[in-house]
Structures
1.
Amino acid sequence: MTGKVQKPCKICGKMFTPCADCENDKTMFRWKRVACSPECAKKYFARIASSRQLNPENKK
Amino acid sequence: MNIYLDHAATTGLSDSMKQYLTSVLDLWGNPSSLYSISDKPRQIISDARQSVAKFINADPKDIYFTPSGSGSNTLAVKGLTSENPSKNHYEVFYSPTAHKSMLKACEACIYHTALKVNSAGEIDCVYLDDVLTRHNALKPLVCIEAGNSEIGTINDVVNIGSIVHGHNGILAVDATGYIPSCKVNMKQWENYVDLLTFSGHKLHALKGIGVLWKCKDIDLKPLIYGSQEQSLIGGTENVLGIASLGKAVEDYNYSSGAPNNRDYIYHYIVNHIPDSYLVGASIESGKRLPHNLYICFKGVEGESLMILLDLNGIQVSTGSACNSRNRSASATLSAIGMDEKDTHSCIRLTFSGRETPEELDYVCDILKQCVESLRWLNTK
């Protein structure tokens, strides 16, 4: 595992290793850059959706 | 609202099926034994075989129950080919878009050649004829899928069978993706197809049961040694699974086979969600599975879209179900020459045909919102 980047999940804080493809792809959002699991990814998306509803400016 | 749009991955059990299977649980005798408590389990297997044979218009003697669709595919390929070069009589030619079980079984054979497909995923029949003409040292075994579960393209089984038989070859067809929405009639196909496989849990039966139909002239080596299933698949029979398949095909209804729901969503997408396109055979071609929609949304990660849709009560998949946890692009998308960037931007929706208008409108609305949200996230 030497050289594998680890980062904290934005939801639960657990350290995880995102896939290199996801980290290097700057063309689109990839859930594995921010969350350690699909369950945490769902929570992330729920937070984003809530934040967009609270701030309509974000919908533009 | 919860809307399941991944019927190509698996299907649920009806209430009547659950009631029936509960009654079967009490019939626990070993079907191979000769005493009275084994009579009913043995009868269930016999009845199920009759039902499956009737479902595909075939002789019950040519129907074999296997542990799965993957098991059927493996038996079809490995049952013919040998690992010993001096005893091997076949060269295997296979669809590069076939299910992994067929793909890997073919690639494990000593002599194997991938066929070509066009950008819609159809087998290139000109290339097939040419390659069979050039490779004529061994008898050809050609392995294809009738309908691709992933991108929905239907192959011309009759034409391919004609070509294969014209070269004195054997044609094995995986009908798993095809049979849930397109009726199979072996009386029409038996002059072109030598081996046919499909899976039970795509037809509202239990998981863990598959079918192999075999032409009488074909001799296969066993997949699992034993005496069951005419010694091709040994092991005490999965009576519950077989019972579920027998009932599922008896109750099976092709009346919801029209592509209306698929087309409704498709037309909404092309008219309201920009930078998206259909993957596989076109809607107009008539060569597309009627319940399959495989769409690329440019700039949107398919997995993220799948998760976000699930958050909103809609289940879809990216790639084939078996590939869902695997990061690499599917073999099918690579084989059709799709742009590598786009291969990670696709989702597959597979319908039952029984979705309500309200559900369809909900799907359209949520799909649009989710795609917009993910494209917005790209800007942050």
2.
Amino acid sequence: MGEPCAVIGVGQTAYRTRRRDVSIAGLVREAAARALEDAGLTWKDIDAVVIGKAPDLFEGVVMPEAYLADALGARGKPVMRVHTAGSVGGSTAIVAASLIQAGVHDRVLTVAWEKQSESNATWALTVSGPFSTSLVVGAGGYFAPHIRAYMRRSGAPAHIGTLVAVKDRLNALKNPYAHLKIPGISREMVESTPMLWEPIRYLETCPSSDGACAMVLAGERAARRAPHPPAWVHGTAMRSEPIFFAGRDAVNPRAGRDCAADVYRQAGITDPRREIDVAEVYVPFSWYEPMWLENLGFCGEGEGWKLTESGATALDGDIPWNASGGVLSSNPIGASGMIRFAEAALQVRGMAGEHQVDGARRALGHAYGGGAQFFSMWIVGSDKP
Amino acid sequence: MSSEPNHVVEFPGGYTRSVGPVIGRFLTELRDGRLVGVRTADGRVLVPPTEYDPETGEAVTGEFVEVGPAGTVTSWSWVPRPRPAHPLDRPFAWALIRPDGADTALLHALDLGEFEEGADPPRYLKAGLRVRPKWRAERTGGIGDIACFRPEVTMINAPTRLEYRLRGGRALDRFLAGIAEGRILGHRCPVCGQVIVPMKGLCPRDGVPTSEEVEVADTGTVTTFAVNNLPDPRAPDVPFVSAYVLLDGADLTMLALVAGIPADQVRIGMRVKAVWRPREEWGPTLDNIKWFEPLDEPDVLFERIKDYV
Amino acid sequence: MNRDIAVVAFAQTRHSAQDDGLTEVEMLAPVIGEIKERTGLTRFGFTCSGSCDYLAGTPFSFVSALDAVGAWPPISESHVEMDAAWALYEAWVRLRHGDVDTALVYGFGKGSQGALREIFTQQLDPYYLAPLGVDPVSLAALQARAYLDRAGVKEDDLRAVAARSRAAGRANPYALHLPDPDDEGYEVAPLRPSDIAPVADGAAAIVLAAGDTARELCERPAWISGVDHRAEAHAPGARDLTRSESTRIAARKAGADRVEVAELHARYSHEELILREALGLDESVSVNPSGGPLSADPVMATGLIRIGEAAARIHDGTATRALAHAASGPCLQQNLVCVLSGESDG
């Protein structure tokens, strides 16, 4: 994986249904300026900018990296724009890290964002050409059948999704940036909400948010000079597979398993449940926690729901998942993956505030997208590898 | 009053009112396109200015202070059906507006744009809304020199319409030609041997071209499904069941509408059959198949289809 | 890490001025098939593509494109919503890590199915520019006017660029075959239709390889001796439209000198003149021997094709040092310079 690379700055905006107080550039600059401040740097210290977001139809600006170039201080600098569907926030961070690891740059600013309130997420994700029927309404419409297949295959009881919905929202109460803050969240409250796409209930679904997340990544020399502890990158991986083909396992996709195996190998991890202290995993519908527990090798196939039920993934469990509240609590789609990667970094830097997992030294950041076919992951640690 | 009035009180030419130095200063400044207030003895700024401090009755100082022109709504009412004398002929708000730099608020009309008569107030109309005056081009020194206030610009509307002429492609054209004849066609991959329906002209798994046509049945098995309760104008009426159906003879499931059975009775493993529209309505479109409905056959065991979900 | 990385294979479609009724995937698949056959590779260490959702007006155009690649078992893959030249840049960066030796890069675009001028209006600043309805051709004409005034160049000089590009394009089997410019009116003054890249549908793919793998796969690899890209400010009133400072910086960083051939992503004839100046190309350099974008502009692949065409001049031995340039955004807002050499530095 080349030269050492570390996260030396993290910046997030408050995530809200509508950030009507800012323009697109204002939103993106808010996160970027906070990341620079954390890194003790100014715009002029940055060598290159890597921007990520999900489909341009959300805001109706085609390839907005052009409009945002100087808003991100990139006049005379390289700017790239990554788009890998829902995994894009993670992929964007990996492309930025890749520039450091290749020895091309010393300090790279990476920003991922979405301002979903400028249109409507269900519309933007479901715009289809004249040849396809609209049987899938939004992401939930796509994922619901796969969740049903998981429940059938694993024999998981129906309340498992509810447990995750409650746990992640309890965590969100400790995160100042989180969008959904539901005091008194309980199983009864989740179970009283309607089925949007059966078997997915309203409160088992992620919100639609405006927001941006940014990181400053640095090579070894720059990392040593940073004012706060760095999070060292121990491994990065991306994997993709086609969306529809005969024999595809859409519940436990091989691309996810291969991606995890690759990133663990780089980080020297053989037993993820024991060797990873905290994980920020892309869980936009509550049932994806047990599904990804299995896909990521934290337990055997069919066992994920038992781990969730045992409380192992809670903030005080032995392997906390989504201490920040996760995608279920904040979901500016293009940024959601980068938030996972950034929260993983905050944990191993000891800078996660109220939702800090004590003594976290190694963390997983995870994102997925498309029809659960694009995966990006990284492992960060407080020690230089 | 439904009929014409039969009595009118109107002073010919309008009343002539003297305004005095304080109000006069305010209106004179207004005519010049400025908003001013007056400072009270204890340092507060009154807008619109009066000769006295409404709290103490003490005379105000002679110090005028430019304020605004932007301000903040402190309270409001909403007029869904304006009356003839109202300053606007479409639904609008009356608002108390505290200009920046002032300690009191001014009453004025607040125009929030186009609304149908009788409309409810928009949700963003609330205390704290930031507004600015819309000045009349010709001003005479009256409160009407401000035509109304309008919200500060926080959002612009960006209508976008892009037109495309999309083609379905060679494989889809062939598939739909089959559908137009009531046949469901697929391709067999020369590498993995799997039958792909609808065909794409290539196997996504092996990345090779495919051309061997295979006709499959219009019966199949539901491998998994969702019950959709979220309405969308482009989708069927809710609740509708979107299901992955493994057609007999195919190796790849197809997303399809399942109907003719209550949503809560759809099952994984259920046998279904395509319901075709009347032949005279057929064209090269999947709409020829209305949906899939249950067959009177026993369910397929999950073990037999679990690899197709 | 510093490794020698080369373009070892290049394939493209015969670009088409009208919609041939193929989907993007159907258009792309033969190109992927051809480049796999030419290299004998079916799996690559890394794959990266460039495309734009708005060309078809639906989200996720790159998802179905993956069907053409044969992404099974799953592949290490990424995508840029930019011209595929930037996908090549991402792949070049990835190969420098040292753990993988080959990369597949591809780009595709069907410009024929939408109104490109209206689509790329929506790439402009959404507050001050897009609401005006100003389109990229009008902005390019604004830049052309400014350049003509500053450089003392005449409209006839633009016509000469167009005529030379079209003549070269007629000798290129993959380009559109367009007639010599005649007495045509203005499209947007001072630009006439022949000064403007014609809409085309097309796709292209490149295989990159490192070190000895490159030498095994290609008799005469086109080694990337330098590649860099830079951006300008967005607002046309906030920069000097008559110069391409970002191209100048990218060329300096990429070590662009002593080249014999240059393939430039000039979508308007005046852009070639601005780029020649920024790159310091004199009359001895053969510019756009392929006909360039003025002879075929399959958007999102056009920049990658410049790199492919420049590499092809190395592969066939007609040049030992070549330059490729790719651009993105209105009025040459972003510019990439790639220098290719028949000799590796290592």
